[in-house]
Write a structure and sequence with these properties.
4 strands, two-stranded antiparallel ribbon, 2 helices, Alpha-Beta Plaits, mainly beta, binds iron/sulfur cluster
């Protein structure tokens, strides 16, 4: 390696660190981090939307129902990182979400 390549960069030459382009969250599939996953039971779900409000990754999917309005329709596993917040927040009397070990 040449002597010039070993030279330390000056502050002015350093690239800006820790900054990512805005609006790119859809490109990062956080589901690859997961070791456990929430499993949604459609038959138990009362569509209170508590899980949808609570999910930090907007991974709870919704749909429009003619009679009920906005309802939960599933989990987007591309973005669910398995934090378990939705399972914890689902009303204890309902328990429409359970955590399961991710199969590798
Ligand atoms: S919190 Fe539970 S009952 Fe409420 S919408 Fe989510 S899965 Fe359904
Ligand atoms: S486990 Fe976490 S990231 Fe996945 S759907 Fe539930 S709240 Fe969202």
């Amino acid at each position: 390696m040449k002597k010039e390549e070993n030279r330390k960069l000056t502050a002015a030459e350093l690239p800006a660190g820790g900054l990512v382009e805005a609006g790119t969250a859809a490109n990062f599939h956080t589901g690859s981090w997961r070791s456990e996953k929430p499993v949604w039971n459609k038959d138990k779900c009362i569509s209170c939307l508590t899980c949808w409000i609570s999910c930090p990754d907007s991974a709870i999917l919704t749909a429009q129902d003619e009679k009920k309005g906005t309802v939960v329709s599933g989990i987007d596993y591309d973005f669910c990182k398995g934090c378990g917040i939705c399972v914890r927040e689902c009303p204890p009397k309902v328990q429409a979400l359970t955590m399961e070990q991710e199969k590798k």
